[in-house]
Design goal:
Layout (H helix, E strand, L loop, with lengths): L2 E5 L3 H14 L4 E5 L2 H10 L5 E5 L9 H9 L5 E5 L4 H9 L4 E4 L4 H12 L18 H10 L4 H11 L4 H8 L3 H15 L4 H10 L11
Parallel strand pairs: 1-2, 1-3, 3-4, 4-5
Helix pairs in contact: 1-5, 7-9, 7-10, 8-9
């Protein structure tokens, strides 16, 4: 009997994953979440999870932050990224930052099962077409990821709003906290990232972005 956790905010695809697991591992225990906060809470209570299937861009998990955070907090839990992003760069970076596998959402149920089975056997898995094309992550990016991983999910949200040019008052209103709380978060962000101003912090975040344009969802 295996224990799975499916973390994806798209009901149709989440249900598709659940159906694959149900058909092939009928005695397994499966938990679900739709954002990074819920994922972390569940893993804290179920640290014997055999495989986490993690959507790359669900709420709170934009870009690589969800993966980096989970790997930092739950190093013993294998993580398979689930995403509509299928470019070599994204797959390479996800694998370079600790993912055990990368399953594109375009994969058939049969291929998804093959991937899950391989991951449960302790292997790394990416689609055949990408195996020879993966590129290593630079040491600079790994060091930057380690700093980003020290941020709390709330601090990461604040940093994302800073990148979009929001004022402290606007961020506080959006998150339902005081402006003083936002200032405290920003101070903590600067300390953890080793920066002294917003511009430097935003540049560091942008270096971890999977896309240069505004955060997308998949």
């Amino acid at each position: 009997m295996y224990r799975f956790h499916v973390a994806d905010d798209h009901p149709l695809f989440r249900n598709a994953l659940l159906e694959v697991i149900k058909q092939n591992y009928p005695d397994s225990v499966v938990s679900q979440s739709m954002d990074l906060d819920g994922t972390i809470r569940d893993l804290e209570h179920n640290n014997e999870t055999d495989l986490l299937l993690l959507d790359l861009h669900m709420p709170g998990s934009q870009d690589l932050f969800g993966l980096i955070t989970v790997r930092e907090k739950f190093a013993d839990i294998p993580v398979a990224i689930i995403s509509a992003d299928e470019d070599v760069s994204t797959i390479s970076r996800a694998m370079g930052h600790g993912a055990s596998g990368y399953i594109p959402k375009s994969c058939s149920p049969q291929v998804i099962h093959q991937a899950i089975r391989s991951l449960l056997e302790g292997n790394r898995w990416v689609p055949d077409d990408y195996r020879v094309s993966l590129k290593p992550v630079t040491s600079e990016e790994k060091d930057l990821a380690a700093k980003i991983a020290t941020l709390t999910p709330q601090q990461y949200r604040v940093l994302c709003y800073l990148r979009e040019g929001w004022l402290n008052k606007q961020i506080g209103y959006e998150l339902g906290v005081t402006e003083a709380t936002i200032k405290a978060h920003i101070t903590a962000i600067f300390r953890k990232l080793g920066t002294t101003n917003r511009t430097q912090a935003v540049i560091m975040l942008s270096k971890m972005s999977l896309h240069n344009e505004q955060l997308s969802s998949s």
